[in-house]
Amino acid sequence: MKHNRTLACLLLVGCLTAANPLQAEPTESYGEIVGRKLASGLGNITTAVGEIPKNIIIVNNESNFVYAFTGGMIKGLLNMTGRIGVGFLDLISAPIPTYPVIDPLFIWDDFYADTTYGPILVYEESR
């Protein structure tokens, strides 16, 4: 009887260790990561000009129209340049599975969110 309890405890610990959520598998395969990078590269290059009205709207919601037009225009031009650069980086580095550099990934994903940039070429393990 004592060995059965020990065996049951060992099996329980083994099952809990095997189902550890910290060791979760990546959600995308290598092909999906490459496809995402190619799509985001082309999408960001072609739609980057949308950063200008997006940032005018965001700045206008936070202050007045005069500041929104000038400050939003400058911020939009800078983010447009950044989005084009990240798009080219994604196209060039498509075979290397990395996490996205820009957030939101596409301009239309969250139009009212500020564009932010993360670390460049952080390796993403595929399945």
Provide the residue-averaged pLDDT: 82
Main sheet makeup? 2 strands, antiparallel
Alpha carbon gyration radius? 22 Å
Specify the number of helices: 4
Overall 3D form: elongated
Distance between the termini: 43 Å
The total of beta strands comes to 2
Order of helices and strands: HHHHEE
In total, the number of domains comes to 1
The percent range for helix content is 55-70%
Secondary structural class = mainly alpha
Beta-strand content bin: under 5%
What ranges have pLDDT less than 50 throughout 5 or more consecutive residues? 9-24
Q: Strand order of the main beta sheet, please?
A: 1-2
Organism: Methylomonas rapida
InterPro entries: CHP04073_exosortase-affil
Protein name: Exosortase system-associated protein, TIGR04073 family
Signal peptide: 1-24
Structure report:
This protein is mainly α and 127 residues long. It has one domain (27-117). It is 59% helix and 3% strand. The chain has helices at residues 2-18, 30-47, 51-62, 65-92; strands spanning 102-103, 116-117. It is elongated and about 75 Å long. This is Exosortase system-associated protein, TIGR04073 family. Keywords: Signal. Residues 1-24 form the signal peptide.
Features:
two-stranded antiparallel ribbon, 2 strands, mainly alpha, single chain
Layout of SSEs?
Elements: H1 2-18, H2 30-47, H3 51-62, H4 65-92, E1 102-103, E2 116-117
Antiparallel strand pairs: 1-2
Helix pairs in contact: 2-4, 3-4
